[in-house]
Design goal:
- This protein is α+β, with helices and mostly antiparallel strands.
- The chain has 2 domains: 107 residues; 83 residues, Nuclear Transport Factor 2, Chain: A (Roll).
- Helix content is 54%, strand content 11%.
- The protein contains 1 helix and 4 strands.
- The termini are far apart.
- The model has no long low-confidence stretch (mean pLDDT 81).
Length: 195
């Protein structure tokens, strides 16, 4: 009997220990399951917050990039405007210098004089609807008066000065008139060159 009791006690003891061992993991497993189900919700909230923060960061970067591009564009536009202003200033200064130089150069032609010699040349026909008149320096001649038909191309044969660029000698009755062919401005008049 003693021989039977000892193995039964040992078996009971072993069964009790194994039951306790199996019961304990179940409790730990249930606790782990609760923890495991609680973590995903917090993780999901954290992930959403992270995604929102990332989107906000990307949006901020894009806004900064747009602002930088706009700033660079504004700087380029300002530089272009400054270059255009400087170019306009240089062009104005050049035009002023050219005008002064041209006025100085044209001064030797300016004047109204009586011709030293008189020449017989083709018959002059006045423009239709106009009468002969004496022109003066600084006046403006109508375009019909300085048409190509009235140009004196062989001016050296009549002791006339060589005309400056954009000027031509025009015959007006007995007179030779130096006219700007772009504007009609009279620069010089030599009276009684022809008869």
């Amino acid at each position: 009997m003693k021989r039977l009791i000892l193995p039964v006690i040992a078996a009971a003891f072993l069964l009790g220990a194994s039951g306790a061992a199996t019961a304990a993991p179940e409790r730990h497993h249930a606790h782990a399951q609760v923890k495991h189900t609680a973590k995903p919700a917090a993780r999901a909230r954290a992930n959403k917050a992270t995604r929102r923060a990332n989107r906000a960061t990307v949006h901020a970067r894009k806004s900064t990039a747009r602002a930088n591009r706009a700033s660079a564009h504004a700087r380029k536009a300002t530089a272009r405007a400054n270059r255009a202003t400087a170019h306009a200033r240089r062009a104005t200064a050049h035009a002023r210098r050219t005008t002064i130089r041209n006025n100085r150069d044209l001064a030797r032609w300016r004047g109204a004089v009586r011709a030293q010699h008189r020449y017989r040349w083709n018959t002059w026909h006045r423009p239709r609807g106009w009468n002969y008149r004496r022109w003066y320096v600084g006046g403006y001649m109508p375009r019909t008066w300085y048409a190509r038909d009235y140009w004196i191309t062989n001016y050296l044969a009549f002791s006339l000065l060589a005309p400056p660029p954009d000027y031509e000698w025009i015959r007006q009755g007995p007179d030779a008139v130096l006219v700007d062919i772009n504007t009609g401005a009279v620069l010089r008049v030599e009276y009684d060159v022809f008869y």
